[in-house]
Amino acid sequence: VQLVESGGGLVQPGGSLRLSCEASGFTFSNYLMSWYRQAPGKERELVAAIISAGGLIRYADSVKGRFTISRDNAKNTVYLQMTSLKPEDTAVYYCNALIVNRDYWGQGTQVTVSS
User: Fold this and answer.
1) Closest by alpha carbon to 36, among 69, 83, 84, 74?
2) Half-sphere exposure of residue 73: CA atoms within 13 angstroms, side-chain side
3) Angle at CA of residue 53, ends 17 and 51, nearest 5°
4) CA 63 to CA 18: how far, in whole Å?
């Protein structure tokens, strides 16, 4: 299993970014995919999750209305569209695959929201 995130960077408050996570090594369309984040000195937290068919989506309260998770099963990719970014969104963002009750993680991508 391999998960490779991309799309992080530095953005001003109020700006937008789109993160991508390309997956390989498993049947992507069969499994729950999620985005987590970890800010310095804080625990890793769930940001958003999407089931295999894309019909059930969950968001952390802190990002509802600003972030959108989606997936393209043909491209084995899950996305996180982030808008109206705030300084408190600054963190390393990780892609996660839950496969037969085991968590797999990407290497993470840094998102910094600062003026």
Assistant:
1) 69
2) 12
3) 65
4) 14
Report the distance separating Cα 62 and Cα 57, nearest Å: 15
Cα 55 to Cα 32, 58, 83, 103: the distances in Å are: 11, 10, 22, 21
Q: For residues 36 and 19, what is the distance between their CA atoms, to the nearest angstrom?
A: 12
Q: Which residue type, as a one-letter code, is found at position 57?
A: I
Per-residue pLDDT of the chain (115 residues; tens, 9 = 90+): 999 999 999 999 999 999 999 999 999 999 999 999 999 999 999 999 999 776 788 999 999 999 999 999 999 999 999 999 999 999 999 999 999 999 999 999 999 999 9
Q: How far apart are CA 13 and CA 112, in angstroms?
A: 9
